[in-house]
From TrEMBL:
Organism of origin: Thalassomonas actiniarum
One Gene Ontology term, aspect cellular component: efflux pump complex
Signal peptide positions on this chain: none
InterPro entries: BSH_CzcB-like, RND_pump_MFP
Molecular function terms, GO-annotated: efflux transmembrane transporter activity
Name under which the protein is recorded: Efflux RND transporter periplasmic adaptor subunit
Protein family: Belongs to the membrane fusion protein (MFP) (TC 8.A.1) family.
Amino acid sequence: MTSVFSLPARAEITQVDVVYPKTSHSHQILQLTGTVEARQNAELSTQQSGLVAALYVEAGDKVAKGDKLLTLDDTLARLSLAEAKASVEAGRVAQAEAERLYKEVLALSKQKVVAETLIGERKAGVASAKAELAMRRASLALQQEVVGRHSLYAPFAGVIASRNADLGEWVSQQTRVFNLVQQQELRLNLAIPQEYYGQLINREKVAVTVTPDFADAAAIEADLSRLVAVSNSQSRTLTAHVDLPANARLVAGMSAKAEIKLPQGKENLVWLPKSAIKQHPDGGASIFAVVDNKAKRFLVKVVKQQGEKVAISGAPANQALVMSGIELMREGHELKINSVQGQPL
């Protein structure tokens, strides 16, 4: 009787190329596209309802603060103003007469020929006339304000982006007659993903490079001016503003690219070829290092890609990282190093 013994299969050894990567101490760059907007962008309406009697500007006109833009028909308001002026004049006359009568009885009172009640009546008459005149003056001021509100003035310097009323048209306080946009103080509005909030909120100065989206545009060096610490519940982004210089050659509504230099994190970045990164179905990534001639897996985070290179965080320090044959590689596979790039530190 003979027995047959089978020898265990020898584990397959995988030949691999490895690299000792250099750690990058450069800052991470966040690239975004934003919209240039004005600090002041107002939809202007009149303070009174009425017919448009005169228009002084058209779309595209530049205006200074205080320039008259529009006048409504103020005929009835001016008639009421004239009536209020006449009423004030009548009040002055009535007050003067009341004061004359009061002085008259005061003179007679020295001769003891006037009753004390008459003196009191004349004194009350003066007080009543003064109060009446004050009321009429207030009515005059009110009517002067009403007349003034039949004209619309520019609240700040800028350009008329649109005009939405014509001569003879009836407008109300709800009618958006003009859109006035400031030109001098522009800023870039950005939507920053919420995961970068912690890196930006406590920084006093964050550098931003702005590149306008038109030919031959020069890059603009600026700083992050404001980070609004409220996240949009739909997009999960934070609003940020970058103040632009006056010579930026930009106008409101344009698009521009922004590169935000993020503060350096605690983890240093390692650049590897794409072939060294194993992508997971759930969106994660991992790499393999050669430890005691066996494959050891490390979970990493892909931070940035440039061409065939990938920047990752979470890579082990001073380890030979596998660059080839990782598609079917598993933890514990026996490895044989075929070629080495770089040197351990």
